[in-house]
Structure formats: structure tokens, C-alpha cells
Design brief:
Elements: H1 3-26, H2 35-46, H3 54-65, H4 71-83, H5 98-132, H6 144-151, H7 155-169, H8 189-198, H9 200-226, H10 229-236, H11 241-267, H12 269-278, H13 284-293, H14 297-325
Length: 334
Amino acid sequence: MTPEYVFRRIGVFFLTIWLAATLNFFLPRLGGGDPVRQQLVQQAAMGGSVQTGLDAMIAIYDEKFGLNKPLWKQYLTYLDDTAHLDFNQSMTNYPQSVLSIIEKSIPWTIGLLVTSVVISWIIGGLLGAFMGWPRSPRFLQYLMPPFLSLNAIPFFLLGLVMVYVFGFRLRWFPMLYGYKPGTFPQWNLTFARDVLYHSVLPALSIILVSIGGWALSMRSMMVTTTGEDYVVYADAKGLKDRTIFVRYSIRNALLPQTTALALALGQIIAGTVIVEVIFSYPGIGKTLYTAIRGSDYFLVQGIVFMLILAIATATLILDLLYPLLDPRINYGRN
């Protein structure tokens, strides 16, 4: 890997972040409307009376959030604030800052989403590798149809089924929330067990749906790999089956799976948003859903930008690690 490629790839990374941040700024504003007025009118309606001095309050909040400035000035301010990870204060949770809200929500999503995706990736990859290996037990072939059937079901739909069966009917697991209502989050074993108990159903809804897709893609890569000349040659040399399976087949089939893992972490967020809403799970997905409903520009921008930054960073790291995963890859060659 040449230094020129590294610098070029980092330049593309920053260009991608800038383009995504620009779209992140303009897209919420395409719908029009006045988010401050919507919030104040909604609060006044909940109070059962018409708020007096509403226009004056709107003008004050518009000046506070910078919404009274021309759009291009708002854009420049947004780019400067974003470069410092300062996303202003939340409109719906004022005076809390957007970054503080994200800091409270993102550990829940990391614990649920990343753990569930990695577990499903490992189980599905191993299952697909064994199913694609011609000397594996035959009974493994019967596991593919049920997992593929589950893979066709959306996360949230399976989540609803699991809530009804295991939460409402059998009462094995709690149906809602990330921990028992009335308790305060704290670092101890009791609270950790409570969080783990509440995360079983949302995690299973992601894992069971994802395993089939990972197994199918890994199986197809294993079938292709086992037909390659180097695998045939290794078999002809009399190497052990375990050596051929681990060092020759899985290692070469693992690269596309690793690439898909980084992309899946970004793509799966669309499904987990609804999963978190269904289970009232206090993660970043539910926070994003609440922000969109409340037209909270700054909170939406902050969450979306952090997700874009995480996905782009993971893709960059994997791209730079490719030569370590597969020595045949050399970016310095023409």
C-alpha cells in the first residue's frame, strides 16, 4: 500500500463526509414549515389554552437557534459547528445539547445493534462455511430453509411476533423498555442483568433475521473457493481437511464477508429504528424517530451525521486493512 493511495483514500473520506453533511443540512429543510412554531403551538395546545405572545417567543427562539439568518449563513455555521461536533441545542429537549442526548442514547444502540450484528455475522458465517464445505455433516443442509425464511421477514415484524408470543402470551421476557421502569441506570451487576434481560427480544429479532443472509453469502463464497486451483492442489498434497478448511477456504472467503459487515452496520439502522420504537428501547433509533416526529432539525442532523461518520470510518479502516486480511491485495500496483 503506497502513501499516495492512503492520502487519496483519506481525501475521499473527507469528501464523502462533506457531501453527506451537506445533504444532512438541506434535506430536513425541504419539507418547509417552522419547527419552533410547531413546538410552541403543540405545547400551548397540550396546556389547553392559546399561548399569548407566541410570535415574540418564536422570534426569540429563531434568533437563539440561528433560524432567522439566511440559509447560506445557516449552512456555514452548521459546517463550522459540525467540524467541532457541536450540533447546537435540541429544539424538543431545550436546553439539552444534541451531543449530550446522543451520548445518552448511543451506548444502548451500540450494545444492542453491534453485538447483535456481530453475533449473527459469526454464527451465519460459520454455518455457511460448514454448509459450503463438501465434507461437512449432511444435517446442516436442513438448517438453511428455516433461516432463509426468517431472513425474508423484516426486523420489526419478527419483533412484533416475539413480543406477542414471548412477552404477552408466555411472559418469559419483558415487552418494553431497556430496563425495569422506576430504576436508575448505574454501574452494577444487578442493573446489567436487568438490561440484558430486557434486550433479549430486540436482539433476537435482529439475530434470527440476519443469520440466513450471512449463511447464504458465506456458503456461496465457500463453494466458489473450494473449486479454486490452490484448494485442489492443497488437497492433492495430502494436507489435513482442517488445514484446508481454515487456512485456504475460510480465509479467502472471509474478505467479502468482512466488507459486508461494515456496510451492514449502516444499512441495518433503518430496520433497528423501528425495532427500538416497538420495544421502546432507549437507543439512538428511537431518539431519531422522536426527533423526526418533532421536526427537531439539530437533533436529526446530529444523529444522522454521527451515523454517517461511523459508517465512513468503518469503511475506511476496512479498506486500509484489506492487505492485512488478504496479502494478494496490493494497492501500489497499477
